[in-house]
Amino acid sequence: MKKVIIAVSVGIAIVIGFLVFMQNVNINRLGAEPYYVQVNEGKKMEGKTGTGEKYVYYEYTLQAFDKKGQEKPVTFTANKQLRKEAFLCVFVKGDKVSSYQEVALNEVPVKAKVNLQSSSSS
């Protein structure tokens, strides 16, 4: 009886741990490399859902820099227009952006920041 209670308790703990993990971790960021970009004008695009409803999204093609300052061109979409000149951390898997989030300038690594500031001033 004691072994059954322990086994059930361990099972419940595993399920709760998994649920907390799924709630707090963006799976699209797992295994992705962080790069940093500064937002410029996005290209407004239109698409249609499977039911024929129209929707608007924005496409961004930007030069991204990793923490070592290495450059990589990235293209990604957002369902809203992003704040112009905002800094983003984009998560790149291969050649695709899997996720992004806005970051403050002081969160951008030094080498990426130098490259972003020099590319935005030219």
Core attributes:
122 residues, 29% helix, 39% strand, alpha+beta, 3-stranded antiparallel beta sheet, 2 helices
The strands making up the biggest β-sheet line up spatially as 1-5-6
Fraction of residues in β-strands: 35-45%
Given this structure, which CATH class is correct? Mainly Beta
> What are the segments in which pLDDT stays under 50 over at least 5 consecutive residues?
none
Give me the CATH fold name. OB fold (Dihydrolipoamide Acetyltransferase, E2P)
The main pleated sheet reads as: 3 strands, antiparallel
Count of strand segments: 6
Distance between the termini: 73 Å
Structural class: alpha+beta
Averaged pLDDT: 84
Can you name the CATH architecture? Beta Barrel
Rg for CA atoms: 20 Å
* Overall geometry: flat
User: What do we call the CATH homologous superfamily?
Assistant: Protein of unknown function DUF1093
The percent of residues in helical segments reads: 25-40%
The run of helices and strands is HEEEEEEH
Estimate nothing, just give the exact number of structural domains: 1
Transmembrane segments: 6-22
Pfam family, one: DUF1093
InterPro entries: DUF1093 (IPR006542), YxeA-like_sf (IPR036166)
Keywords: Membrane, Transmembrane, Transmembrane helix
